[in-house]
Amino acid sequence: MGITDIDDKIIMKCESEGMKTMPEIKKFTEKMEMEFLADMTDLGVQRPDAILRVSEHIPDIIVFVDNLIKGGYAYVSNDGVYFAYTKLPPDHHYDRFGNLGSTTDSTSNPSEADDPSGAAAVVHDKRDSRDFALWKLCREGQKEIGWDSPWGKGRPGWHIECSTMTYQYFGTRLDIHSGGIDLQFPHHANEIAQSECHHRTIDEGKSHHCCYNPNHPWVNHWIHTGHIHIAGRKMSKSLKNFISIRDYLQKGITPHPADDFRLFCLQNKYDSLITYSEERIRDAAVVREKFSSFLALVDMVENKVQQRDAVAATTTTTTSSSRMPSQKPSEEAKTLTKRLHRAQNNVRVYLQNDFHTPAVLQELLELVSAGNVYGGRLLQQAADVTASMEPREPLLSTARYIRNLFGMFGLQFVHQPVTTSTTSATSGEDFDKVVRLLIHLRSSVRQTAVQEMKASKKRTKQSSGASSTDTVEVEQAIRSLCQSVLEATDSTRSQAEAELGLKLDDGHGADTIVRKK
């Protein structure tokens, strides 16, 4: 990963805060780099294999620029060194991304973003308006940050750093190069121009094809990501229209903010414009819950089968054949297996079709739907120790595929203990404590509702005939609310019995008696 730790914008920022020496600037950029890497870690982004800083590659940049001068592709002027646009080979296609329309004349200026910092406009001493800076000389009489070079003290231009650092570590070929959609022109167009001309210069006299050949380009595949918008505008610090990664994670919009942001991105094509909002993050969380619930179901089936096998092993009336899952696939098992194979094939096609992740997620949601149906069948069969069971392999294979694929996408929840309404990450004594606390909470809420309903009826009876219409309506609303609470606790009791095998007996004053079914 390349780190731009020196450019005009950074220098201006540091100078505005009283930092004017290179050690001071270095300390500032190192702090920013550490915060950035910490944010990436919190988002679940893996550390890069190598971190390349511009300030540590100044000698390499000088050599790179010198090679371009020797090859006739660059020239020295009074304020720096420029790439000569008119010296591009005749067969070099500059407008590879189609940003300039049908022509690339002098009105289409590849140097117009030489200073992306937005610094004050400077009249450059260059031969053609389309030429762009490779090395910027420090202004006379100004104490500017710079390095010595054959052309005078200065610092690198914007585009040259990327070409130099990638050449140092990857040579004359790159398989994949990525960046934001806004970097297509002029940044990436200029990178291609200077890299392919540089590589042609150093390749001269060798038998293999030179790098500028259209059949052997510098980069095989370009990936340009779309922008994130907030409230209809591009997320931008300069527009004060942004939320930092740290603020987003600390806000805790959902229980798994890093995974949910990643899913939010996967729900959109990587090169499309996407609009960030808390509501869309919550929508992504709903998608995550669907997958989590399926994985929880698979774990529940496995736990039930283990319990069934333990009971069956001590039951003399149960034959071994009834405990052993059938190895002959049922029609339902065949259906899930076919659905899994179809999903695997479709996902491969979608990813090969320019990483179409929205279609991948939809395919997996349909697979999970089929898996839930089959998992439900197995759960019912596992509950009866005397019943035969269909094979678990189709369900386990489906879960394994989803875990592996989501692991490849960098989603962490598939590798963590699943916690949903029907399962828990805790076990043993911890699980019992959680259950007791929740049962106690339910019991307290229920008793409060019962007592308040009785009190409301008593108040109404005592003030009968003297109450205003408003008072009567208030007491009715209180009793209606209490009735809703009681119905909710009854529903919880039914769920506890059906899903956890816990029978809750509320007929003992303030205490709820818990029995195993």
Keywords:
single chain, 517 residues, alpha/beta, four-stranded antiparallel β-sheet, three-stranded mixed β-sheet, 14 helices, 51% helix, elongated
Fold topology:
Elements: E1 2-3, H1 8-16, H2 22-42, E2 52-53, H3 58-70, E3 74-77, E4 80-83, E5 132-137, E6 154-156, H4 160-170, E7 174-180, H5 184-203, E8 219-225, E9 228-230, E10 233-234, H6 245-251, H7 257-266, E11 274-276, H8 278-313, H9 320-323, H10 331-352, H11 357-383, H12 393-408, H13 428-462, H14 469-500, E12 502-508, E13 511-516
Parallel strand pairs: 1-2, 7-8, 9-11
Antiparallel strand pairs: 3-4, 4-5, 5-6, 9-10, 12-13
- Number-wise, the strands total 13
- Give the rounded overall mean pLDDT: 84
Q: Strand fraction band?
A: 5-15%
Oligomer: single chain
Describe what you observe in this structure.
With 517 residues, this protein is an alpha/beta fold. It contains 14 helices and 13 strands. The protein has helices spanning 8-16, 22-42, 58-70, 160-170, 184-203, 245-251, 257-266, 278-313, 320-323, 331-352, 357-383, 393-408, 428-462, 469-500; strands spanning 2-3, 52-53, 74-77, 80-83, 132-137, 154-156, 174-180, 219-225, 228-230, 233-234, 274-276, 502-508, 511-516. The strands form 5 sheets. It has a 4-stranded antiparallel beta sheet, with helices on one face. The protein has a 3-stranded mixed beta sheet with strand order 10-9-11. Strands 1-2 form a two-stranded parallel sheet. Strand 9 (228-230) and strand 10 form a beta hairpin. Helix 3 (58-70) crosses helix 4 and helix 3 (58-70) packs across helix 5. The longest helix has 36 residues, at 278-313. The chain is elongated. It starts with a strand and ends with a strand. The model is unreliable at 102-107, 117-121, 207-212, 318-322 and 419-427 (pLDDT under 50).
